[in-house]
Amino acid sequence: MGQEVSLDVSSHLHPAGSFDLADHPVPTGMEEIWRFTPLKRLRGLHDSAPFVDGAVAVKVEASPDVVVEHLAADAAVRGISGLVPTDRISARAWDAATGVTVVRIPTEVVAAGPTVVRHIGSGSDTASAAHTVIVAEKFSRATVVLDFEGSATLADNVEILLDDGAELTVVSLQDWADDAVHQSTQHARVGRDATLKHVSVSFGGDLVRHDATAEFSGPGGSVEMLGMYFADEGQHIEHRLFVDHTAPRTKSNVVYKGALQGQGAHTVWIGNVLIRKIAEGIETYEENRNLVLTDGCRADSVPNLEIETGEIEGAGHASATGRFDDEQLFYLRSRGIEEFEARRLVVHGFFHDLIRRIGVESLESKLAETVEAELSKNVLKAL
Amino acid sequence: MATLEIKDLHVSVDTEDGPKEILKGVNLTIRDGETHAIMGPNGSGKSTLAYSIAGHPKYHVTSGSVTLDGIDVLAMTVDERARAGLFLAMQYPVEVPGVSVTNFLRTAKTAIDGEAPKLRTWVKEVNAAMDRVKMDTAFATRNVNEGFSGGEKKRHEIVQLELLDPKVAVLDETDSGLDIDALKIVSEGVNRFKQNGDKGVLLITHYTRILRYITPDFVHVFVNGQVAEEGGPELADELEANGYDRFVSAAV
Ligand SMILES: Nc1ncnc2c1ncn2[C@@H]1O[C@H](COP(=O)(O)OP(=O)(O)O)[C@@H](O)[C@H]1O
Ligand SMILES: [Mg+2]
Known about the structure:
The complex is a heterodimer of chains A (383) and B (252).
Chain A: H1 2-13, E1 56-61, E2 67-72, H2 88-96, E3 99-105, E4 115-136, E5 141-162, E6 167-176, E7 181-190, E8 195-202, E9 207-216, E10 222-231, E11 236-245, E12 251-260, E13 266-275, E14 283-292, E15 298-307, E16 314-323, H3 326-333, H4 339-358, H5 361-377
Parallel strand pairs in A: 3-4, 4-5, 5-6, 5-7, 6-8, 7-9, 8-10, 9-11, 10-12, 11-13, 12-14, 13-15, 14-16
Antiparallel strand pairs in A: 1-4, 2-3
Chain B: E1 4-15, E2 18-30, E3 35-39, H1 46-54, E4 59-68, E5 71-72, H2 78-84, E6 86-89, E7 96-100, H3 101-113, H4 119-132, E8 143-144, H5 150-164, E9 168-172, H6 180-195, E10 200-205, E11 218-223, E12 226-231, H7 233-242, H8 245-251
Parallel strand pairs in B: 3-10, 3-11, 6-9, 9-10
Antiparallel strand pairs in B: 1-2, 1-4, 4-5, 7-8, 11-12
The structure holds adenosine-5'-diphosphate and magnesium ion (MG).
The site of adenosine-5'-diphosphate (ADP) has 12 residues of chain B, from strand 1, strand 2 and helix 1.
């Protein structure tokens, strides 16, 4: 009986996956997983827009101790993470990808520096598909940055596999030009005692839908999912997260923070956590905070925690969406600090701890600068 | 050199039942070098007076005036008031997540002076100011007031008072919640500030205890949004002996 309930719950949190496109009808927008997304702006990615090669170039700057290969789409490595498409765009991208970029951190290698996989878009008129596989072998340690820039209409699947004891940081940086449309489906399988830090940063693009899921293949694994986003006028940024506690004594910690400014800026955060019956002694916490900087924005935030076993260490979630704190602004201004400067301080402060926690040194100043650039667009002007 | 003049000040706050008048005609003049103590029971409107002088958006001035050296303070924004030389040490200093004390102090000093302080001397000044109130300089790297104890928050207010060096300081119950050692440290800070020129001090307090360390020139008993009685330091002694009863019953 318990088993049946568990299956029902899991399908509620996450629809069953399939590689067969026929199992993924064109969404109408009424479906739970599509209800927040403006389908019209997906340029047919969710329907049948043809995929064409050549609009998105992949360039890799690898740490010397990390192996990078570009393989054909039929390479056996595809599917290694257990990713099975759960929506039509992911299934279409799986079919359409003509190659796969593989980043492999060999056993016990501690990578000298970050490996950067750049996806550089040169136009958004045609749809592109891509597939990336990151494998962190036993006891290896590395940082991999997926950098998305330029103009594109892109659907991609990213598979992340951590063998036992591996420590991997994956940063997905959606730094698109204003007209980009992107759905990224990223799935991680975390091995015994392995540690994944998954970071998603979304600044640019017209519509970015980012789906990140993690499951555990052995006990003792740990997942930290950090995210940061800044939505401007008319921008839709959607992060859908799912941590599936499929093994005992695993940990997950999810912290996403976003700022919104300008008419029609819309962000969506879905934080699903499922604690399976087998997953005793786990710990999970998820948190989403949104800072609304102007009128006309909308932040949807939906944490969802399903617990099938009573034997857990801890589980919690928090979600808060608010405007500038008047008391903070008053305090700063009562020390002579002008209003625009006070707002700047508060927004930087809002993201500060998160940026520190991302912990990728080469990114820290870039992220702070991007916040600054975003702020100068609107908040400061509005005064 | 500064005179803060408050004339017939009426202030309301918005409540669910509409506006509620809290200050009901306050008159007060603080001249150069004078220290005025405002003493009153809880809820009498002391913080409302402090916030109204500083320009907190929650408080609406419905009539009356506040001037600094004849210049209309009420027409200024919050930050303009600070740059004009007013300082408010708050009863409940606010936490500002993600903003370090160092960054905050430098930004405030730059705003007040109109130019960035010289880096090398500034760091020394900040460290010295923290030392004087026996605040570990490790606080400089922490976020503003975040996780500070009540006493640490109050010392941090005094650090700011000394570094920003205003013309007139309004101290809203800076003494409350302090143990005797902290009270002395904070009082010494205020006295140093006073010696630093002809400073005006408006010392708001609920208890007479702090007046043993900071000698007021004038004492005002504040009841029900008004000054009920004025006098010299001896008025504080009477309050110490008899409490506020005489004034509260007279005001009802
Ligand atoms: N937002 C508000 N709504 C209703 N009453 C308020 C509000 N703010 C303050 N008051 C009331 O104003 C009075 C004065 O408050 P305050 O100035 O804080 O007093 P004090 O500092 O002397 O203790 C109190 O009775 C308090 O309840
Ligand atoms: Mg008060």
